[in-house]
Amino acid sequence: MNQLQETVTTYIESAGWFAPVLFILLHMLRPLLLIPVLVVCILGGVLFGFVPGAILSFIGLSLMSFEMYVLVNRFPGFKARLDRLKERFGHGRTLSLGQVLVLRVMPFVHFNLLNVYVMEMTKSFRQYASYTLAGLVAPAILYTAFGHALSSMSWITSLMLAAVLAGIYYVIGKYHKPETAPDTAD
Protein backbone atom coordinates (compact mmCIF):
# COMPACT_ATOMS: atom_id res chain seq x y z
CA MET A 1 0.00 0.00 0.00
CA ASN A 2 2.81 2.44 0.87
CA GLN A 3 4.61 1.63 -2.37
CA LEU A 4 1.44 2.36 -4.36
CA GLN A 5 1.04 5.62 -2.46
CA GLU A 6 4.64 6.66 -3.21
CA THR A 7 4.26 5.76 -6.90
CA VAL A 8 1.04 7.78 -7.20
CA THR A 9 2.65 10.71 -5.36
CA THR A 10 5.67 10.74 -7.68
CA TYR A 11 3.51 10.47 -10.78
CA ILE A 12 1.18 13.28 -9.72
CA GLU A 13 4.05 15.58 -8.73
CA SER A 14 5.69 15.11 -12.15
CA ALA A 15 2.41 15.78 -13.97
CA GLY A 16 2.52 19.56 -13.47
CA TRP A 17 -0.70 21.35 -14.43
CA PHE A 18 -2.33 18.00 -15.26
CA ALA A 19 -1.88 16.82 -11.63
CA PRO A 20 -5.32 17.99 -10.40
CA VAL A 21 -7.04 16.06 -13.20
CA LEU A 22 -5.05 12.93 -12.34
CA PHE A 23 -5.90 13.37 -8.67
CA ILE A 24 -9.63 13.61 -9.43
CA LEU A 25 -9.33 10.51 -11.64
CA LEU A 26 -7.61 8.74 -8.75
CA HIS A 27 -10.65 9.57 -6.60
CA MET A 28 -12.94 8.12 -9.25
CA LEU A 29 -10.86 4.95 -9.61
CA ARG A 30 -10.23 4.62 -5.88
CA PRO A 31 -13.00 2.05 -5.27
CA LEU A 32 -11.61 -0.22 -7.99
CA LEU A 33 -8.09 0.08 -6.57
CA LEU A 34 -9.37 -0.61 -3.02
CA ILE A 35 -7.75 2.55 -1.69
CA PRO A 36 -9.55 4.09 1.32
CA VAL A 37 -10.95 7.60 0.93
CA LEU A 38 -8.81 8.72 3.86
CA VAL A 39 -5.58 7.83 2.04
CA VAL A 40 -6.51 9.71 -1.14
CA CYS A 41 -7.61 12.82 0.79
CA ILE A 42 -4.41 12.78 2.86
CA LEU A 43 -2.49 12.57 -0.40
CA GLY A 44 -4.42 15.60 -1.68
CA GLY A 45 -3.46 17.61 1.38
CA VAL A 46 0.20 16.64 1.05
CA LEU A 47 0.41 17.30 -2.70
CA PHE A 48 -1.78 20.35 -3.11
CA GLY A 49 -2.08 21.90 0.36
CA PHE A 50 -5.17 22.21 2.53
CA VAL A 51 -7.54 24.39 0.47
CA PRO A 52 -6.74 23.11 -3.04
CA GLY A 53 -6.52 19.52 -1.72
CA ALA A 54 -9.92 19.80 -0.01
CA ILE A 55 -11.52 21.30 -3.11
CA LEU A 56 -10.05 18.62 -5.38
CA SER A 57 -11.08 15.89 -2.95
CA PHE A 58 -14.62 17.29 -2.81
CA ILE A 59 -14.79 17.31 -6.63
CA GLY A 60 -13.37 13.78 -6.87
CA LEU A 61 -15.66 12.37 -4.17
CA SER A 62 -18.67 14.08 -5.78
CA LEU A 63 -17.92 12.68 -9.24
CA MET A 64 -17.34 9.23 -7.77
CA SER A 65 -20.69 9.42 -5.95
CA PHE A 66 -22.51 10.52 -9.10
CA GLU A 67 -20.77 7.72 -10.99
CA MET A 68 -22.09 5.28 -8.36
CA TYR A 69 -25.63 6.58 -8.85
CA VAL A 70 -25.42 5.87 -12.58
CA LEU A 71 -23.84 2.42 -12.09
CA VAL A 72 -26.41 1.35 -9.51
CA ASN A 73 -29.31 2.47 -11.68
CA ARG A 74 -27.95 1.04 -14.94
CA PHE A 75 -26.64 -2.31 -13.68
CA PRO A 76 -29.03 -4.20 -11.40
CA GLY A 77 -26.35 -6.82 -10.64
CA PHE A 78 -24.09 -4.13 -9.25
CA LYS A 79 -26.91 -2.85 -7.04
CA ALA A 80 -27.57 -6.41 -5.87
CA ARG A 81 -23.92 -6.78 -4.81
CA LEU A 82 -24.08 -3.55 -2.84
CA ASP A 83 -27.40 -4.64 -1.28
CA ARG A 84 -25.77 -7.90 -0.13
CA LEU A 85 -22.92 -5.89 1.37
CA LYS A 86 -25.45 -3.61 3.04
CA GLU A 87 -27.32 -6.59 4.47
CA ARG A 88 -24.10 -8.15 5.70
CA PHE A 89 -22.93 -5.04 7.53
CA GLY A 90 -26.19 -3.21 8.16
CA HIS A 91 -28.29 -6.23 9.14
CA GLY A 92 -31.37 -4.70 7.47
CA ARG A 93 -31.22 -1.45 9.45
CA THR A 94 -32.22 1.85 7.99
CA LEU A 95 -30.03 4.85 8.70
CA SER A 96 -30.98 8.47 9.07
CA LEU A 97 -29.21 11.16 7.06
CA GLY A 98 -27.48 12.27 10.28
CA GLN A 99 -26.10 8.77 10.83
CA VAL A 100 -24.83 8.63 7.25
CA LEU A 101 -23.13 12.01 7.74
CA VAL A 102 -21.38 10.75 10.89
CA LEU A 103 -20.32 7.55 9.14
CA ARG A 104 -18.90 9.61 6.25
CA VAL A 105 -16.27 11.11 8.56
CA MET A 106 -15.29 7.77 10.08
CA PRO A 107 -12.15 6.40 8.42
CA PHE A 108 -12.46 3.18 6.42
CA VAL A 109 -16.27 3.13 6.24
CA HIS A 110 -17.35 1.97 2.76
CA PHE A 111 -18.32 5.20 0.95
CA ASN A 112 -20.23 3.45 -1.81
CA LEU A 113 -22.29 1.56 0.73
CA LEU A 114 -23.22 4.89 2.30
CA ASN A 115 -24.18 6.10 -1.19
CA VAL A 116 -26.67 3.23 -1.39
CA TYR A 117 -28.25 4.36 1.89
CA VAL A 118 -28.54 7.91 0.52
CA MET A 119 -30.07 6.58 -2.72
CA GLU A 120 -32.70 4.72 -0.71
CA MET A 121 -33.70 7.79 1.29
CA THR A 122 -34.05 10.05 -1.76
CA LYS A 123 -36.62 10.15 -4.52
CA SER A 124 -34.65 11.78 -7.35
CA PHE A 125 -31.12 12.36 -8.59
CA ARG A 126 -31.42 16.02 -7.63
CA GLN A 127 -32.23 15.14 -4.03
CA TYR A 128 -29.50 12.47 -3.99
CA ALA A 129 -27.00 15.00 -5.35
CA SER A 130 -27.87 17.64 -2.75
CA TYR A 131 -27.67 15.18 0.17
CA THR A 132 -24.47 13.70 -1.20
CA LEU A 133 -22.76 17.04 -1.81
CA ALA A 134 -23.69 18.22 1.68
CA GLY A 135 -22.36 14.97 3.12
CA LEU A 136 -19.03 15.15 1.29
CA VAL A 137 -17.94 18.57 2.55
CA ALA A 138 -16.93 17.35 6.01
CA PRO A 139 -14.86 14.33 4.94
CA ALA A 140 -13.11 16.30 2.18
CA ILE A 141 -12.13 19.00 4.66
CA LEU A 142 -11.44 16.79 7.68
CA TYR A 143 -9.49 14.10 5.87
CA THR A 144 -7.43 16.61 3.93
CA ALA A 145 -6.67 18.84 6.92
CA PHE A 146 -6.43 16.31 9.71
CA GLY A 147 -5.90 13.03 7.90
CA HIS A 148 -2.21 12.94 8.57
CA ALA A 149 -2.77 13.85 12.21
CA LEU A 150 -5.45 11.14 12.56
CA SER A 151 -3.15 8.51 11.09
CA SER A 152 -0.32 9.47 13.42
CA MET A 153 -2.36 9.70 16.64
CA SER A 154 -1.62 7.43 19.55
CA TRP A 155 -3.86 4.38 19.97
CA ILE A 156 -5.51 5.90 23.03
CA THR A 157 -6.39 9.13 21.22
CA SER A 158 -7.68 7.14 18.23
CA LEU A 159 -9.83 4.97 20.49
CA MET A 160 -11.21 8.04 22.28
CA LEU A 161 -12.12 9.65 18.95
CA ALA A 162 -13.75 6.42 17.76
CA ALA A 163 -15.71 6.21 21.03
CA VAL A 164 -16.97 9.79 20.62
CA LEU A 165 -18.05 9.14 17.02
CA ALA A 166 -19.69 5.84 18.03
CA GLY A 167 -21.53 7.70 20.83
CA ILE A 168 -22.81 10.33 18.39
CA TYR A 169 -23.88 7.57 15.99
CA TYR A 170 -25.74 5.76 18.80
CA VAL A 171 -27.52 8.92 20.01
CA ILE A 172 -28.66 9.81 16.49
CA GLY A 173 -29.87 6.22 15.98
CA LYS A 174 -31.74 6.28 19.28
CA TYR A 175 -33.81 9.27 18.16
CA HIS A 176 -34.25 8.20 14.54
CA LYS A 177 -37.63 6.64 13.91
CA PRO A 178 -37.40 4.54 10.73
CA GLU A 179 -40.40 4.58 8.46
CA THR A 180 -42.28 1.32 8.63
CA ALA A 181 -44.01 -0.20 5.63
CA PRO A 182 -47.77 -0.47 5.96
CA ASP A 183 -49.01 -3.93 6.82
CA THR A 184 -50.61 -5.34 3.69
CA ALA A 185 -51.18 -8.89 4.92
CA ASP A 186 -54.91 -9.46 5.40
Supply the key terms.
186 residues; mainly alpha; 0% strand; membrane; TVP38/TMEM64 family protein; transmembrane helix
Task: Describe the fold and architecture.
- The chain is an all-alpha fold.
- It has one domain (2-175).
- The protein is 79% helix and 0% strand.
- It contains 9 helices and no strands.
- Helix 2 (19-33) packs antiparallel against helix 3 (37-48), helix 2 packs across helix 4 (50-74) and helix 6 (97-104) runs antiparallel to helix 9 (155-175).
- The longest helix has 27 residues, at 125-151.
- The N and C termini lie far apart (56 Å).
- The model is unreliable at 180-186 (pLDDT under 50).
- The chain crosses the membrane at residues 21-48, 128-146, 152-172.
- Keywords: Membrane, Transmembrane, Transmembrane helix.
- Pfam families: VTT_dom.
- This is TVP38/TMEM64 family protein.
- Residues 35-148 form the VTT domain.
Q: Count of helices?
A: 9
Mean of residue pLDDT?
Answer: 80
Helicity level? over 70%
The global form is globular
Structural class estimated from helices and strands: mainly alpha
| Share of β-strand residues | under 5%
Secondary-structure element pattern, one letter each: HHHHHHHHH
Number of distinct beta strands? 0
Radius of gyration: 18 Å
Major beta sheet summary = none
Organism: Planococcus lenghuensis
Protein name: TVP38/TMEM64 family protein
Keywords: Membrane, Transmembrane, Transmembrane helix
Domain VTT: 35-148
